Amino acid sequence: MDQTARITIPATGQIVEIPTGLFINNEFVSSVDSQERIQVVNPATEDIICSVVAGSEKDIDAAVAAARAAFSTTWGKNVTGFERSRLLNKLADLIERDSQVLAEIESLNNGKPVRIARDFDIGDSIQCLRYYAGWADKIVGQTIEVNNKTKIAFTRHEPIGVCGQIIPWNYPINMWAWKVAPALACGCTIVMKPSELTPLTALVLSKLIAEAGFPPGVVNTIPSLGPVGGAALSRHMDVDKVAFTGSTTTGRKIMEAAAKSNLKKACHTREVSLELGGKSPHIIFESADLDQAANWACLGILYNTGQDCTAGSRLYVQDTIYDKFLHLLVEKAKQLVIGDGFDEKSGGGPVVSKAQYDKVWSYIESGKSQGAELVLGGKKRPGKGYFVDPTIFTNVTRDMRIVQDEIFGPVLSVGRFKTEQEAIALANDTSYGLGAGLHSADASQCMRVSSALEAGTVWVNQYNILGNNVPFGGKKQSGIGRELGSYALEEYTEVKAVHWNFGEQAEWPL
Ligand SMILES: NC(=O)C1=CN([C@@H]2O[C@H](COP(=O)(O)OP(=O)(O)OC[C@H]3O[C@@H](n4cnc5c(N)ncnc54)[C@H](O)[C@@H]3O)[C@@H](O)[C@H]2O)C=CC1
Ligand code: BAL
């Protein structure tokens, strides 16, 4: 069966070919046993873009077998760091070559503006691949002196093996790069399961994997429903590690499946890395540059239409500047154009799916019914598309669902505080611990508060800015392990200690 869809890009009329099969051993193939297909929807129009094969458990088995064979022959310990680096750089170059069309496909499938997909998501992904290309030949262990005359020990940082990687729909290309780049740099092989909502760019990137020259089986891609392919990967006896980004609920299931199968050494964080949800606090102190702080607050909650694990969805503003700041914030939030991703004016797109749209609206309704005051948004748009306008609530209390739960939409709760201690207590009053931000002109206050905030990332006088060379991950129920930076290399390698005797005689019997 032809596993290619021909899709027309709305703005240009260009026809692009998108592979829709399973990518195993550098080829697109049909399922071994499933006739099911996943309908892929454009969230801006609600039209079906195309359908892709829905991979089954047997397909996951085939992909894992391909990844295992590659690990034992052409990849793993059989390839030099220099070669892994060369291939990662080649892949980055190919993505750069195709960045416009990749951005257009990302926008069609996810809804985000083409401009933002190209300049931020893809730009950052190219840099991520190049960053880990730089690491590939620098993964080294230690030499440990045991006895100068007779013994030495050394460590080797060996690739963990076959990695299942399960990624979400909010940054399909970027999350792909965050997972693939360090795994390949370390010598692991991959079975990638993209989100069933946004499988298209992972399939196009798979074509580039083959074009770059990675040996067959090094990266395999199985579009599949989460409870089918994702669950099969998590419990697979021949998968050495699972890396996941998504909801805390699914993260728990993955951890359980990993522990119940081959252990994937579930209590050993490097073999199950989870990047989960958040309800991140963002604090504005009275000494802050209010205009800048309002810009960052808008970016914090409205970037990617709020579909961001670190979205600064709880804003706390000091009493003395509250009214002034709220006015600034609302005026700035009104300036964002949420529209079709192919419209150059759009700074944000629709939310990704009908389910996400319904979820966001149920939270907006709960905010209204639980007594929060709506100061912006909160009205549905007529017409097609899963668009939600910036929505701001004030007069919020800790028992409200909009204050407690991750909404993953452009919905902000604004609270007020009098003292630094009160701000810290409000900020930490959550089971999550992914991101947190604060704005203040007082350096000592910045130091004190950034230390007190319970989060894996704290932003001072900015928000939501990440770096490929800076670790990222969560405390509390926001995750396990770290992505990015040199820390991610620990997630994909295992340390082997080698004890070497060059002079000591064994005494026997004891
Ligand atoms: N931390 C983050 O970046 C993300 C957080 N979320 C949160 O989760 C909420 C629900 O979104 P969903 O798409 O349902 O998230 P999800 O966590 O279920 O989906 C993320 C990935 O996990 C896979 N998955 C689903 N069930 C699985 C299972 N039993 N075993 C293994 N993999 C499985 C999905 O197919 C997808 O690839 C969102 O509203 C948002 O609050 C969603 C996506 C990303
Ligand atoms: N913004 C970092 C990754 C995420 O939202 O999932």
Label this structure with key terms.
binds beta-alanine; 2 domains; Ald_DH_C; oxidoreductase; binds 1,4-dihydronicotinamide adenine dinucleotide; six-stranded mixed β-sheet; Aldehyde Dehydrogenase, Chain A, domain 2; alpha/beta; seven-stranded mixed β-sheet; 22% strand; Aldehyde Dehydrogenase, Chain A, domain 1; 510 residues
The set of bound ligands, ions and cofactors reads: 1,4-dihydronicotinamide adenine dinucleotide, beta-alanine
> Looking across the biggest beta sheet, what order are the strands in?
16-17-18-15-14-20-21
Number of helices: 15
Shape: globular
> Helicity, in percent?
25-40%
Provide the number of structural domains: 2
On the 0 to 100 scale, the average pLDDT is: 96
Structural category is alpha/beta
* CATH superfamily placement of the largest domain: Aldehyde Dehydrogenase, Chain A, domain 1
As for the CATH topology of the largest domain, it is Aldehyde Dehydrogenase, Chain A, domain 1
CATH architecture level-2 label of the largest domain? 3-Layer(aba) Sandwich
Poorly predicted ranges:
266-270
Bin the strand percentage.
Answer: 15-25%
Give the C-level CATH assignment of the largest domain: Alpha Beta
Radius of gyration: 24 Å
Please tally the β strands and state the result.
Answer: 24
Largest sheet: 7 strands, mixed
Terminal Cα span: 69 Å
GO molecular function, one term: aldehyde dehydrogenase [NAD(P)+] activity
Pfam families: Aldedh (PF00171)
Family: Belongs to the aldehyde dehydrogenase family.
Protein name: Aldehyde dehydrogenase domain-containing protein
